[in-house]
């Protein structure tokens, strides 16, 4: 019998040693919790396809922020459900838009204890559900970039800590940067959804945000899931245009893209563990087919191991509580 000299199992027997040689460790600092804010008072609409997530009116949103803060999670990503939609998403850039109001209320109450990121896009605010202004049955890039920049300035004026454009129009990071700077918001960073794929994994989110396209799909602006080189071009362009943090979305089916992005660019990298990824875990757990906590931590760890510095996830509070032994 030829016994091995090198035995990798030696490092696996003792749990204390296993901890010492653990390469990837999750931290609550990694997480961003997405939230959905809607008009009204005392409104808590459960989102059927995303158990534990709700459309919340501002009063209840503030309570939720307290829970988040108490879990140790320090950042949230806000999405709005407006009471009124139109063809060109007018309410998305108004001083009294739903997200603008929410940002003001949260910053007033939590000051610097909570980092407030705002998603910048039109799909929640347009009657047709597309991410911009429609011309000839398609989203018209350049006028859309203009209103996205207006929306960004308006959200910065409300007190948002970081702007996160998710629309995938060409050139929007550059224009948003330019308009923010022009309005004295040169200190406000941009986290760009740089490589955002046209994905079936957004299904549950579109229930949550009531933002499903009413005709066609988003393939003329979001990326083809088959493409990796193109993701590197998207990210490179966003960096040139002034993005401070770049993002890959979704996360789980795109771990290779996360790794390539991390290896290619010396940039802080975010990954969005999207609604469908979350809902699959929840659904399988409800059926008793998987161990929810175990899968949640394994998934989040794999996203970090792939190279993400920031993980946007609906599991944020649950994962933080688990990390803190609660
Ligand atoms: C808005 C936006 C979407 C998501 C984040 N921002 C939906 C979409 O592009 O259709 C998806 C988030 C998720 O699925 O959790 N454009």
Care to describe what's here?
The protein has 326 residues and is α/β, with parallel strands linked by helices. The chain contains eleven helices and twelve strands. The protein has helices at residues 15-20, 58-71, 98-110, 141-158, 172-182, 203-209, 229-241, 255-264, 275-286, 292-306, 316-323; strands at 31-37, 44-46, 54-56, 75-80, 115-120, 134-135, 138-139, 162-165, 191-196, 245-249, 269-273, 310-313. Helix 3 (98-110) runs parallel beside helix 4 (141-158), helix 4 (141-158) packs across helix 5 (172-182) and helix 8 (255-264) packs parallel to helix 10 (292-306). The radius of gyration is 20 Å and the shape is globular. The protein starts with 14 loop residues before the first helix and ends with a helix. It binds ligand PBG. Ligand PBG is lined by residues 119, 121, 123, 131, 166, 202, 205-206, 274-275.
